[in-house]
Amino acid sequence: MGLPGSGKTTLASRLKSLINAEWINADKVRSEANDWDFSAAGRVRQAERMRKKALHFKERKLNVIVDFICPTNKTREIFNADFIVWMDTIKKGRFDDTNKLFEKPNYYDVRVTEKNSELWAAKIFEKLKDEKK
Length: 133
Hints:
By secondary structure, this protein is α/β, with parallel strands linked by helices. It has a single domain, classed as Rossmann fold (3-Layer(aba) Sandwich), CATH 3.40.50.300. It is built from 6 helices and 4 strands; from the N terminus they run H-E-H-H-E-H-E-H-E-H. The chain has helices at 8-18, 26-33, 40-58, 73-79, 96-101, 117-132, and strands at 21-25, 63-67, 85-87, 110-112. The strands form 2 sheets. Strands 1-2 form a two-stranded parallel sheet. Strands 3-4 form a two-stranded parallel ribbon. The radius of gyration is 14 Å and the shape is globular.
């Protein structure tokens, strides 16, 4: 999770093959739902949609990567990720409303601090392997 333009999609696309995962992208999910409401209620709906899609794969014992902004502690609580990567690579995204709304996470497993998807995908992959031991 992270601000728009922080590199979520780029990292997810690289990490997907490393961990043999299904990939859920927020823009695609919004498009499928035809729901471009970015109000607080719209963001909660999106977190619920993303959670439901992720659970579909998780119940089938598949790895899942979900890339979306997930801007508030409430949306993160709703989504309830097993492993959180915070893309802390930019201070401001391209949408002022999201910048104002975004809350730095209280908890994360990995904090990405630079746009280098090859490096960070490898680090995340190693951390995931270590946690499975």
